[in-house]
Amino acid sequence: MDSDSPYGDATVAADLLDDYEPEPELVDDGTLPGDRFLDRELSWLAFNQRVLELAEDDTLPLLERANFLAIFASNLDEFFMVRVAGLKRRIATGLAVPTNVGRSPSDVLADIGRLAHELQERHARAFRESVKPALDDAGIHVENWSDLDEADRIRVDELFTGQIFPVLMPLAVDPAHPFPYISGLSLNLSVRVRNPKTSRIEFARVKVPPNLPRFVQLPDDESGRLRYIPLEDLISNHLDHLFPGMEILEHHEFRVTRNEDVQIEEDETESIIQALEKELLRRRFGPPIRLEVTDDMDDVTLSLLMSELDITEQEVYRLPAPLDLGGLFELQKIARPDLKYPKQVPTTAAALLPSEPSDKPDIFASMRRGDILLHHPYESFSTSVQAFLEQAAADPNVLAIKQTLYRTSGDSPIVEALIDAAEAGKAVLALVEIKARFDEQANIGWARKLEKAGVHVVYGLVGLKTHSKLALVIRQERGGLRHYSHIGTGNYNPKTSRIYEDLGLLTTDDTVGKDITRLFNELSGYAIEKKFRRLLVAPLHLRKGLIKRIDTEAANARAGKPSGIRIKVNSMVDEAIIDALYRASQAGVPVDVWVRGICSLKPGVPGLSENIRVRSILGRYLEHSRIFSFANDGERQLFIGSADMMHRNLDRRVEALVRLTSPAHIDELETLFEEAMSDETSTWWLGSEGEWERHSRAADGTPLVDLQSKLMTEIAARKRSSR
């Protein structure tokens, strides 16, 4: 599911998906209504609906719209694989299913099924009635077999015989051949054939090879058009090659989604890697939870599939072909810049530019001049964070490097820098979170590669994921040892840094350096030091620290002092945080919440949350940074970091927020909030009943401001500031 597009790889939906675990105990004095939370499952589906609305927006570049269709499909797959699967698992095993909206689990599942059916049908309709005709008009044709003339079919026959037929593996189902295992998310053909000699009707399954292009480019017909045919359509019309002598009665597409969540039981009898590898093997054989079939599938075939897969009618999704529109990611490879977003090149952060253009950049010298706030992808990751670690690896005065790795790219220069540092004799510690969902196998591989190079690799604390984004460099200088630190909101991943919006702080502040040192000691050893001065760290102190600051704003408002709260997160789910925000609103505190995905908070409810506004921005880049800002009676406190407001982040992960101290940095992020919450900016607004309304045009029909494009233009135009 990996792609060069926002939202569209396996890390993104996982970033919004939580596990079902006991929720934190709420301190409820009875003054807050019982129905004060929005359903988080339906809120997630509403997030994916906003993605779909981008695909339906004919003002966006056409291939980007096709890409958003693929993103929607990929996201929904992971929602079923994790969240729906987890809900069904707990119901089936009799475990309690926490729900913050006071409804039964069966009602929650029914609502999920109803809305998911509606969205998948709308998704298929958007492709069939809007995007596909527009692609045709642009000279990019996704053909059906019936569209091909005789000359085309002859050339395609040669292509099939030479490049596709040898890879196919038809599997019969009869007393000697049991029903085959259907792998999760694989695209398949169900085939019913009749033996003309015996008149016996048989069933077979043909798996569409996932290692071949999903859309096969057709030979040039000199029309100037790019023409493609879905691989499954091509195979369907050559079934006589696979079943010679048999009469083909029916053939249809189908696709199964399985429970692919990982439940790791950590104990002292085996290493975490051994436990995880065992669970990853089990995940391949998780029970089916969704069956997608083409809407023309005959009842006999459908009944057989439902019986063999143990699927209920409610878990069947009938859709027009083609299934699995995640395959549309492939269209991004087409060289049609006129149908894509205009190319934008990140700029090097002004604070990292050398004094003279001819000078070589020196990250350490720039950091010594003062804290540096980075804003990706508008400012380059490669010339900032990556350059910082590469310079540290090559610098003979650097004694040690410590870093967390949650997700990184397959050809990671970050990992290579750590390996180079270790091979150069430096002390290198890498905390590799091998339990990062859907990146588990890749992270195991990186951990072993790092260990072979001499890097000290640790896997964090039992029962917790390490999600914090931290890098610490210890350098010998004339005055002694100096800490060079990076604290970020996003992963150390050069690939996703080009499409994820994230913040990062580069600092030589000794207080931050000592805080991070203490945290690494806790993660790699047996230290129990919990005192942090500029960091808020989960799971022990982050929720408490935020609620304390929210309560302070409420007290200030009641005392007539300046107050205000601004929060930017991917998800707002944690009930204790939401309740604190409700109480702040009741006290008169203006609260702005900027959320990308799930939001269980109800804004604008009289007597509860009339002072709370919730907005969402989706677009070219995936909004990923987390910001927490408190007016604090005029002495504003502002934090950035890795934590979302979800149970897992606050209770079952090691997360870190860092407080910014530079007035210029605080002003910059406050201005960012002003623009994001402005009525002049294109956003979605959340209503009190959970409905999201898109605001993309002014009353006169003119487009509202695209904040991401505006930021790219403004940041690229910055001149180096005098320090």
Automatic annotation (TrEMBL):
Active-site residue list: H467 (phosphohistidine intermediate)
Residues engaged in binding ATP: N75, Y500, R596, H624
Swiss-Prot/TrEMBL cofactor(s): Mg(2+)
Biological processes per GO annotation: polyphosphate biosynthetic process
Processing and modification events after translation: An intermediate of this reaction is the autophosphorylated ppk in which a phosphate is covalently linked to a histidine residue through a N-P bond.
SUPFAM superfamilies the record matches: Phospholipase D/nuclease (SSF56024), PHP14-like (SSF143724), PPK N-terminal domain-like (SSF140356)
Binding-site positions, Mg(2+): R407, R437
Transmembrane segments annotated in the record for this chain: none
Keywords linked to the UniProt accession: ATP-binding, Kinase, Magnesium, Metal-binding, Nucleotide-binding, Phosphoprotein, Transferase
Segments forming domain Polyphosphate kinase N-terminal: 37-142
GO cellular component, one term: polyphosphate kinase complex
Entry keyword annotation includes ATP-binding: yes
Domain Polyphosphate kinase C-terminal: 362-527, 535-697
Highest taxon listed in the record's lineage: Bacteria
Catalytic activity: [phosphate](n) + ATP = [phosphate](n+1) + ADP
EC number: 2.7.4.1
UniProt cross-references to PANTHER family, sorted A to Z: POLYPHOSPHATE KINASE (PTHR30218)
HAMAP family: Polyphosphate_kinase
General function of this protein: Catalyzes the reversible transfer of the terminal phosphate of ATP to form a long-chain polyphosphate (polyP).
Homology family: Belongs to the polyphosphate kinase 1 (PPK1) family.
Name of the protein: Polyphosphate kinase
Organism name: Schumannella soli
Gene for this chain: ppk
